[in-house]
What does this fold into?
Amino acid sequence: MKSFLALVCATMVAGPAFAHAADQGFVLLLPTTAYITGGTATVAATILLLVCLRPGQIEVILRPITLPLKRGRGQWCNWGQIAASLCLALLILIGLRGPTDPQANLMPLVLWTIWWMLLFMVQALIFDVWKWVNPWPGLHRLLAPDHKAPLTLAKKLSIWPAVVLMAAFQGFVLADAAPNDPGRLASFALGYWGFTLLGMTLFGRKSWLGQVECFSVLFALIGTIRSVRGAAFGVPGWQVFHGNKFDLSHAAFVIIILASGSFDGLYETFWWLDQLGVNPLEYPGRTAMIWPTTLGLYTSMLLLTCIFALAVYLGTVLVHETVSFKVAFIRFSITLLPIAIGYHFAHYFVTFLVQIQVAVATLADPFALGWNLFGLGGRPVRVGFLTVPETVKTIWLTQAGVVVLSHVLAVILCHRTAEALCTSRRDILLLQLGLSILMIFYTIFGLWLLSSPRGA
It folds into this structure.
């Protein structure tokens, strides 16, 4: 255990760095070999440590503790959702009527900074915030409290409709010419809101939100990694093994999340631009890159699916016991969730530190009419911390540490999953052999992304 902790500490040591973030283009230039070696060694040490454990020990560690706490009334959630609906309506109005500059309009600032960056991490790590701020059912429940849907959504569809919508959303985020444009974003949100209200009216709120509405599905899935659920809490990821039923559509959804996050970190790197024959110093703009980005995004989803399937298949053919490839593929795919969450944090961390300041400052005058609401007018946006070596080093260590720890948690969940599918120690280890190799190489890939310079 001491050697394992030493490796973890070694991973968190690196030389001076210069920051990188998504979209707004800061770059980390780091001693690549040293930190990749440290991060990879940490994940490898975790795998070796698990090999030494007796079957069943991980199950004890992941067993939750339940406290005799009373649940709050659902009525408060309803009011929270209604308030979120009103806020969304206001944001759409600001997007359509407010400043056209994305850095001066609350629509893109709140959507991408508060919702997609901050709320995503709160949902995954702290508590079920989406239950309180989901804007889609709030207005519908207020307008039609006793609504009975005329149509039924087939349960055999599972969440495949949400898989398609999430893939389309990722295409909008990464490949659209102007996903930050306030008017364009407001129109997108308004259209999706209308689509969701119509779906809930025709098929019922529960069915539509649980099978089609991709963001409700997303937040429900990442919430399974959270330590707390109701009155029970435990090691992050314990929920995966308690009361959740997953199928191939859930596996596809998780892979889409991970592949999109990985490609989001890749498609603006010098390496990727070089593959396309683009000079990083003469970036042609998003419009010229729509089709290469779209093709790259969906190819990455397919490629990760194939690699992951191959890793799972390798394990199923090596074991003596009979393990269904389909069952193994589904269950092991859920163990990728911590990596997807870790990548999300690392990718957007620096952007969040800057953009949250811009969002707060913009609250003073959302329509650019010369207001000074809340006394926030003229509030400076400080980015000087990105030029201080010690601060930048701390930021990068946080990013790299989260990436490595997310892989460590994924390895632990993978081992617990293997124990659920096999009984002998030999088969438990062989079943996850291919996945262990994949985890190590994915750690190398994730840490390489943090150091890669960007040309956009």
